[in-house]
Amino acid sequence: MGRYLIRRLLTAIPTLIAISFVIFAILDLAPSDPTGNLPLTIPPEVKEQIRESLGLGQPFHVRYLKWMQQFFITEPLNILEETTGIAIGDSEGRFRLRSWQTRGPVIDLVLERLPQTLWVVGLAYLVSIVIAIPLGVISAVKQYSWIDQVATIFSMIGFSVPTFFTGLLAIIIFSVHLGWFPSFYDTTHQVTDWESFVFQIKQIILPVSVLALFQTATLNRFTRSSVLDNLPQDYVRTVRAKGFREYYVIMTHVLRNSLIPVVTLVALGIPTIFGGAIITEQIFRINGLGALLIIAIQGSDIPVVQSLTFIFAILIVLFNLVADVIYGFLDPRIHYS
Amino acid sequence: MTAQSETIALPAAAKKQRSLWGDVWVQFRKHKLAMFGLFVIAFIMISVLIGPLVYTRDPEYIDFTVANQAPSLQFPFGTDNLGRDGLARNLFGGRISIAVGIVAMLISMFVGSFIGALSGYYSKLDGPLMRFTDMMLALPLLPLLLVIILLFRDTLRATFGPETGIFLLIVFVIGILNWMPTARVVRGSVLSIKEKEFVEAAISIGTNQNTVLLKHVFPNVLSPIIVAATLSIANAIITESALSFLGLGFPSDVPTWGRLLYDGKDFMTFTPWVVIFPGLFISFTVLGINFMGDGLRDALDPKLRD
Questions:
Q1: Which residues contact A95 (CB under 8 A, 6 or more apart)?
Q2: Which of B246, B263, B292 to mutate to test the interface with A (most CBs of A within 10 A)?
Q3: B244: nearest CA in chain A?
């Protein structure tokens, strides 16, 4: 297991390097000029100096390596310094990865936006796990019952209706017509007393349920088919033959085995839900990472776009790794050699 | 051999002749949800293709005197804030959305089956091609799509004109970033089929490797490709709508369903029909395609037939 983990970590590194190269190259080779939107009255020499100051004068490979250095060495060191307060080396002289729009360090922007995204995305994911897994198990145990039929239709809708439509529909129904919830998410809202807490709950319900609907649909179908695969197996018959109650058979024996692939799917789904958050954040005006990405793309803020896209890629590679490791850990039949 | 097959064929000739696609159709018809999906898709396709010929109102005609009208007999889908007719715009937009779905599907199927077949059949290519596929799978698709479209939009617009340029770009980018699941499925099927006796037989009579792959192995992996293709259309339509919804897809004078949602979302409090109709079109198209894909998967699998 340990050796497998090390080998798996080592293969993740070339993948990440290749991805970082692809992301950097696409953004770099693109015919877009960061000084293109500046007023025409600025003379060309000055424009050239602006380009130089943005670090665009150097050849491609130098800029790529510099970006890698900033991303993997400079910025982590800065975070370390800020959290621990210990100065490591020449902290003032380090060339930081800066946004072209705000001129502030990219990492500060990301850290500023991260809590909102994590809060909404994380809650949505939790809600969908809490709903989908029990529902999937019930659907499988009582196959073709009314509850299974309802869950099937519900999942099909969750699959097919895109979040940007469910989101708008939810706003029309629940905030415009019924007036139950606010139509957008106010991130400056502070929870100080009971009333503000209720408001916080109210404003988070719509984005979370929209995001959770899609995830619940996938997870529910997957749990159902996984339990259905396990039910006709010999070991289940053996447990039943021993005279255990059906509840015990399902909860301890079937569930444990069926949840192995489900847990890996849960890990694999985390990066995708970040992608889905881009759209949900746009609908409910949440100023999270997705909104930051959209703003950066519209403003041709290349450093922010590169870093965010690469962070999303790291998440995908990381959770693939986590899924593999969990799978091996939960299922003793899997041997890594 | 011939005599034997004739004796078997004699009683069978009295019955109806059976073909592969006939069998698939018989099986497909038993799947209720799949038939429902087929009807929905057929209905949407026909209305989108023939609709604009019958319902001849101009989708771009602006008339402020009838702005923000609720659905009525005169305007079945209502009008938007500029008084443009909702039904005409939805029908016209459907043409583009479905065209994007189909062309993007063709690109991703072509690339996916090409890479999958090569990597499944030639074991030397397997390692590198699958590593490449894994890397592509680890790319964050939506951010990358947004970035590529934003960066190359103006260049393509200048070369091919505003509508064709953006169409080519969107279709190409969606197609090129969605072939990976197909490649994996095709590789898996090719791996199992190339071990079968009939392939060995073809090789033993001296058939050229490429011909074996193309004439003997490939026709046998068509069914997973067909299933992947239907689902990939749905995926492409959703992706295009998401891009348009984020304001990075088609320009506003090309009304795709996603674009209609994007344009309508600021007015949905007063005129909800401007978002409800395109949203319903997208949802029903995707739902229908998903049901059809489910039915096709069952119908194309000979093991499930009775």
A1: A66, A70, A74
A2: B246
A3: A164
